[in-house]
C-alpha cells in the first residue's frame, strides 16, 4: 500500500491544491511565499501532491516569543482526509522550524479546522474573528520545541 511522504518543495508545487481547497477564485500566492525563510512542504502520495503547508517567521499577534513562526496555507486533498497527511505535514514542519530556532508557532485557524490543530497540540488563544471572504477564525499557538 502507498504511504504518504513529506517533502520540502518550491511554492509552485502548492498552487494547485491551494487553488482547489483554500483560495477558490482568489490568487494562489500568499504574501511572503518567496521569502528565503519560507518553508513549503508537500505531502506526496504516489508522487501526487495531496497536502500542502507553509511555515514562515512572523511575529505572533497574541503572545510574546523570541522567534515565532506562522503556519499558513494548510490544506489536504478531500480524497485523503483523515489518514494522517495533515498531521504528518505539520509534524515535519515543527521539526524543521524547531531546528531553525522557533520557540512558538501560531496560525489563524478556520473555525472548522480548530479541532485538527487541537489534536496536534495547538491551543486557542483568541476570540473568534472574521477574515473575509472565508469567515470566522480563531488564533491558535503551540510552544516549541516539543519535548
Ligand atoms: C484541516 C485539514 C488540513 C485536516 O487534514 P487531514 O489530512 O484530514 O488531517 P489528519 O488526517 O492528519 O488528521 C489528524 C487528526 O485530526 C483529526 N481531524 C482532522 N480534521 C479535523 C477537523 N476539521 N476537526 C476535528 N478533527 C479533525 C483527525 O480525525 C485526526 O485525528 P486522530 O489523530 O485522532 O485520528 C483538512 O481537513 C483540510 O484541508 N480542510 C480544508 C482546508 C482547511 O480548513 N485548512 C486549514 C486552514 S486554517
Question: Your description of this structure?
Answer:
It holds the Pfam family Acetyltransf_1. This is GNAT family N-acetyltransferase. This protein is of the alpha+beta class. It has one domain (5-143): Aminopeptidase, CATH 3.40.630.30. 21% of the residues lie in helices and 35% in strands. It has three helices and eight strands; from the N terminus they run E-H-E-E-E-H-E-H-E-E-E. Strands 1, 2, 3, 4, 5, 6, 7 and 8 form an eight-stranded mixed β-sheet that branches. The longest helix is centred in the middle third of the chain and has 15 residues, at 85-99. The protein is globular, with a radius of gyration of 14 Å.
Bound chemical compounds: coenzyme A
CATH superfamily: Gcn5-related N-acetyltransferase (GNAT)
CATH architecture: 3-Layer(aba) Sandwich
Looking at how many chains there are and whether they match, the oligomeric state comes to single chain
Q: What is the alpha-carbon Rg in Å?
A: 14 Å
Main pleated-sheet profile: 8 strands, mixed
In CATH, the topology is named Aminopeptidase
The figure for the number of domains is 1
The share of residues in extended strands comes to: 25-35%
Measure the end-to-end span: 32 Å
Summarize model confidence as the mean pLDDT: 96
Number of helices: 3
Order of helices and strands: EHEEEHEHEEE
The helical percent reads: 10-25%
Ranges where pLDDT stays below 50 over 5 or more residues in a row are: none
- Highest CATH level, the class: Alpha Beta
InterPro entries: Acyl_CoA_acyltransferase, GNAT_dom
Protein name: GNAT family N-acetyltransferase
Domain N-acetyltransferase: 1-145
Amino acid at each position: 500500500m502507498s504511504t504518504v511522504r513529506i517533502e520540502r518543495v518550491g511554492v509552485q508545487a502548492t498552487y494547485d491544491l491551494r487553488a482547489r481547497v483554500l483560495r477558490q477564485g482568489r490568487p494562489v500566492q500568499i504574501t511572503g511565499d518567496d521569502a528565503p525563510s519560507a518553508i513549503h512542504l508537500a505531502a506526496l502520495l504516489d508522487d501526487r501532491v495531496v497536502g500542502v503547508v507553509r511555515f514562515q517567521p512572523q511575529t505572533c499577534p497574541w503572545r510574546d516569543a523570541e522567534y515565532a513562526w506562522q503556519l499558513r496555507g494548510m490544506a489536504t486533498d478531500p480524497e485523503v482526509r483523515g489518514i494522517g497527511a495533515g498531521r504528518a505535514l505539520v509534524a515535519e514542519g515543527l521539526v524543521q522550524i524547531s531546528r531553525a530556532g522557533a520557540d512558538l508557532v501560531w496560525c489563524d485557524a478556520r473555525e472548522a479546522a480548530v479541532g485538527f490543530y487541537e489534536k496536534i497540540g495547538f491551543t486557542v488563544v483568541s476570540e473568534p474573528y472574521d477574515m473575509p471572504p472565508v469567515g470566522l477564525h480563531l488564533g491558535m499557538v503551540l510552544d516549541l520545541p516539543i519535548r
